Amino acid sequence: MSNKETADIGLIGLAVMGQNLVLNMADHGFTVAVFNRTVSKVDDFLADAAKGFDKVVGTHSLEEFVGTLKRPRKVMLMVKAGSVVDDFIGLLLPHMQAGDVIIDGGNSHFPDSNRRSKALAEKGILFVGAGVSGGEEGARRGPSIMPGGDSRAWPLVKPIFQSIASHTESGEACCDWVGNDGAGHYVKMVHNGIEYGDMQLITEAYALLKNGLGLNHDQMHEIFDTWNKGPLDSYLIEISRDILAVKDTDGSPLVEKILDTAGQKGTGKWTGISAMDLGMPLTLIGEAVFARCLSALKEERVKASKVLGGGGAAGGAGAGSKTGNIDDSLVADLEKALLASKIVSYAQGFMLMTEAAKEYGWKLNYGGIALMWRGGCIIRSAFLGEIKEAYDKNPGLENLLLDPYFANILLEGQEAWRRVVVYAVQQGIPTPTISAALSFFDGYRTAVLPANLLQAQRDYFGAHTFERVDQPRGKFFHHNWTGTGGNVSSSTYNV
Fold first, then answer.
1. Strands across the sheet with 74-77, in order?
2. Cys staple from 120: which of 93, 127, 223, 240, with CB 3.0 to 4.6 Å?
3. Between helices 328-360 and 404-427, what is the axis angle to 10°?
4. What one-character-per-residue DSSP string does 116-184 give?
5. Contact call for residues 241 and 251 (beta carbons, < 8 A)
6. How wide is the angle at C-alpha 158 spanned by C-alphas 153 and 159, nearest 5°?
7. Which 3 state secondary structure label does DSSP give 316?
8. How far from chain centre, in Å, is Cα 362?
9. Which of 53-62, 192-201, 315-324 has the least mean pLDDT?
10. CA 281 to CA 287: how far, in whole Å?
11. In this structure, are residues 25 and 32 in contact, taking their beta carbons and an 8 Å threshold?
12. Cα separation of 425 and 109, whole Å?
């Protein structure tokens, strides 16, 4: 039987995510053509992971690959973000026709997707920038997929994407159209920023339990297991619970054999940069990125611990190797502090997406985004259902913290939250994201901040002007603070 024009979709890039997406598509009845720049990987894939999958079609050249695809052709790139994506698009274009679809499923930066969408549209090619989350297991069993780009492509890829995506308990696909140009990759970027925040929050709780209370890993495993049965129920709490139970070959906790330097691929950094560009206070996610940067300074931190004293102000209560006394009240406080901080992290992420939608002309469905994150992705958690409900009730919700459900959690949990931060400060245990979340909460709910003094300083040294509380907004004034500065003021603008 000829393979000519029999494939429903083609996928280029047979690394872990690409292979698993292919098998997922084949499981759902789609015939998938595959190609890889290192052509031998095609044969290796067919002989190993794809063995017995008659709906997977191996090809050994781009000409052969494109020739197997039904029209309009749909090609999904699962390759390294950056120039490699552009290279493959350039190689594909001579073989494609108007109305064909190119899908970038990697972790591309959204400005690249904006550019590619516009450039390909001029050639009649429909571009989709699809954020895919869920890691290896998600790709195989059902990821969260966040597609954006040329909306004319959505009806063509929707049946495939919504079939292979994760589904909620009520059967809704964790995949829907996000918006034009780079909107899909932008939402995936913010997802990853929130993921950075979630992971750092959990590590701070782990440090407080281990170095504050001196609990051993079996005790911490049980605490995380309990948390995962309550409002903190989430994928990241679940895997942290499992990690704490794993022993190395010598019987000691494997996690303690791992060097305390965290890597990053850039999506969290991109989120922070976008927040600064748009003037949004993503304090928690910013601290999470900087915490990874600080962790990378391992040798310098070791030296500093000898000069400045390590192990906290109290010398460190424990290192997780002995059985400490579980302080139930502190553990309960920590659960509330984690939940409150997590709410702030998501609220900041949705603030950023709201501002980006205004800046780039996207029409984002925030309840739909929460649904897409409800299953399959790394930040999936029980309370995403509550976020969807909040935006379904009030699509124009200014901020998640103003929703009665979430506002009530923060107000009821704030005393516990403060006790945790105070305890961490007293013990000398760094909690950059938990502390940043509390500071944001306090700043956001403060009607009058001390920025009046800051603006006075700017006007004093740079004649940057100020608004007055007794005058309409948008009317600016300059004061001759020294009596010698004159009345000439600087122009008013915001970065």
1. 56-58, 32-35, 9-12, 74-77, 101-104, 126-133, 144-149, 179-180
2. 127
3. 120
4. HHHHHHHTT-EEEEEEEESHHHHHHH--EEEEEE-GGGHHHHHHHHHHHS-B-TT--BSB---EETTHH
5. no
6. 135
7. coil
8. 19
9. 315-324
10. 11
11. yes
12. 37
* Of 221, 199, 207, 223, residue with least CA distance to 311: 207
Residue-wise DSSP of 279-307: T---HHHHHHHHHHHHHT-HHHHHHHHHH
The per-residue pLDDT for range 452-495, each reduced to its tens digit, is: 999 999 999 999 999 999 999 999 999 999 888 777 776 665 65
Which residues belong to the active site? 188, 195
Lowest mean pLDDT among 111-115, 261-265, 341-345: 261-265
Can you say whether residue 196 is alpha, beta or left, with left for phi > 0 and alpha for psi between -120 and 50 degrees? alpha
Nearest one of 136, 139, 150 to 178, comparing CA atoms: 150
* CA atoms lying within 13 Å on the CB side of residue 410: 23
Contact (CB, 8 A) for 495 and 279: yes
Distances in Å between the alpha carbon of 293 and those of 288, 297, 310, 354?
A: 9, 7, 19, 28
Contact at 8 Å (CB) between 394 and 370?
Answer: no
**Rounded to whole angstroms, how far apart are CA atoms 11 and 57?**
10
Token digits of residue 388: 């969807």
Q: Using one digit for the tens of pLDDT, what is the confidence trace for 225-278?
A: 999 999 999 999 999 999 999 999 999 999 999 999 888 777 889 999 999 999
Pick from 199, 202, 196, 205: nearest CA to 416: 205
The Cα–Cα gap between 378 and 362 comes to 24
Q: Identify the residue whose tokens are 């303690």.
A: 256
Give the span between the Cα atoms of 192 and 133, in whole angstroms.
9
DSSP letter, residue 95: G
Strand bridging mode 126-133 / 144-149:
antiparallel
H or E, element range at 104? strand 101-104
223 burial class (0-12, 13-18, 19+ CB within 10 angstroms)? buried
